[in-house]
Design brief:
With 441 residues, the chain is an alpha/beta fold. The protein has 2 domains: 56-142, no CATH class; 163-433, Rossmann fold (3-Layer(aba) Sandwich), CATH 3.40.50. 30% of the residues lie in helices and 20% in strands. The protein has 9 helices and 19 strands. It has helices spanning 2-28, 81-88, 95-118, 203-209, 241-253, 276-284, 374-391, 397-407, 427-440; strands spanning 32-34, 40-42, 51-52, 55-57, 61-66, 70-74, 77-79, 126-132, 137-142, 163-169, 184-188, 193-194, 226-232, 259-262, 288-292, 319-324, 350-353, 357-360, 368-371. The longest helix is centred in the first third of the chain and has 27 residues, at 2-28. It starts with a helix and ends with a helix. The relative contact order is 0.09.
């Protein structure tokens, strides 16, 4: 009898262990469901302890990229950042990792639900799936293909203590005397490869050369403390939504991105709401996006920049940079208008120098050219943000952006106006403002 009891207890213990391992396995496998009350939670599993009301509905959409071969689908559920803020606020420790996990959970469950509801009869034909957690969408590849599984979610090793600046453009080359010391990691969206390729006749390489943070001969060059991520998503200088989104997703998956430069425009003017959610995700993950306003002059209905959106709310405009001459006059072709997307706001929020700038070009090791425009003016704002992040590591990204706005030198009409936004970038004044705020605290 005693032996029987021991065997029975052993059996119960083993059964309990198997059940625990089973549920934990399900937890690690990221199996998630969204119930009728819009909770993002694990399957009933008290061991995993995930139950967060963080999701809201949006209009779903799908379209064929290649007839009967590649289907792109945006799913009807996205994260509610207002409810997520206490958990993944960009200023909280490990917030980026938490947001990445939650977004990935939601994305994979959305894919599973979409297959069950819309692709049940075609499931056997699905060759592979490319996940876009940054937008809760996916690409479904059908039929036979010899391409290897996509690996664009591989994370980059970032040296501890480094700042990270990312550039979404047409790819760079560091085969130049001014760039040989730059630590650049590049992902090429079109063919899912890694390695430097400048497909835009030097556009992104020129921008990169202006990001040198050495101010003068008496100051230490902190390039060694900066990691540069380049995503070649505007291949050959041509905008493609999927390629650009793939870059957003790759950058979102990285362990750290402090500032993200966007010197690209969409192919047609007008509001592109499909970029609202990805920009929100990038911001919530602790990255400050900086956009070029464009070079279309005064055309209220001809804005090609995603910065015409207001994804961060009316009280925090996206950083959209216009270009000034050497004499601090706005260049005539620098886009300046009232945005027609969402609450009316200035299309350009800040101005910086953008005339006759000497940049590296990847044709020869020592070749340069003189350029002008908003694509290059954004580098001064990016460098200012990196300086502020290095000097004020405990200030939030929102505080840093607002410091740049509040310290800008007023241009045009007094205060914020539709032609000049907040005015001209003034880094020294922004530093003074932040130092004063810290003293008051």
């Amino acid at each position: 009898m005693e032996i029987f009891i021991r065997v029975f207890k052993t059996f119960i213990n083993l059964a309990t262990l198997i059940i625990v391992l089973f549920f934990c396995f399900r937890c690690n496998a990221s199996t998630i469901e969204i119930d009728k009350e819009l909770f993002l939670c694990n399957q009933p599993n008290k061991l995993c302890k995930i139950s967060i009301k963080v999701s809201i509905d949006r209009q779903p959409s799908h379209r064929w990229i290649s007839k009967n071969k590649i289907l792109y689908a945006e799913f009807p559920t996205q994260l509610d950042f207002a409810k997520l803020s206490p958990i993944v606020s960009p200023d909280l420790s490990h917030a980026r990792i938490k947001l990445q996990k939650i977004a990935s959970y939601l994305n994979r469950e959305s894919v599973n639900n979409y297959i069950k509801e819309h692709l049940k009869n075609s499931q056997s034909r699905i060759n592979r799936i490319e996940y876009f957690a940054v937008n809760n969408s996916a690409l479904f590849y059908f039929g036979d293909t010899k391409k290897q599984p996509l690996k664009n979610n591989l994370k980059t090793e970032i040296p501890k203590g480094n700042l990270v600046v990312a550039l979404l453009d047409s790819g760079v080359s560091t085969n130049h005397e001014k760039l040989v010391d730059f630590n650049v990691i590049q992902f090429n969206s079109k063919d899912n490869s890694y390695g430097e390729k400048d497909s835009g006749l030097g556009h992104a390489t020129g921008i990169l050369s202006l990001l040198n943070l050495k101010e003068n001969a008496n100051r230490k060059n902190i390039n060694d403390n900066v990691t540069y991520l380049s995503c070649n998503g505007i291949t050959d200088g041509k905008y493609d939504f999927i390629s650009a989104l793939r870059c957003f997703n790759w950058l979102f998956q990285q362990p750290q991105v402090d500032v993200m430069l966007n010197a690209w425009l969409v192919s047609e003017p007008g509001c592109k709401p499909e970029w609202n959610y990805p920009i929100q995700m990038i911001w919530m993950s602790g990255t400050i996006p900086v956009f070029a306003a464009g070079n279309n002059g005064l055309k209220h209905d001809q804005s090609y920049s995603p910065a015409n959106l207001a994804p961060l709310g009316a009280d925090l405009p996206l950083i959209s940079v216009g270009s000034l001459s050497k004499s601090a006059q706005r260049l005539s072709n620098s886009s300046h208008a009232i945005s027609q997307c969402g609450p009316p706001h200035p299309l350009t929020s800040l101005y910086a120098e953008g005339e006759n700038l000497k940049v590296a070009v990847p044709f020869q090791f020592d070749s340069y050219q003189s350029v002008s425009g908003t694509s290059y003016a954004i580098t001064f704002v990016a460098k200012a943000l990196l300086r502020l992040k290095a000097q004020f590591p405990h200030s939030s990204n929102k505080d840093l952006v607002l410091a740049l706005y509040r310290s800008a030198r007023d241009l045009g009409e007094a205060g914020v106006d539709n032609e000049y936004g907040f005015g001209e970038l003034d880094l020294a004044k922004a530093i003074d403002l932040l130092e004063e705020e810290i003293k008051q605290d």
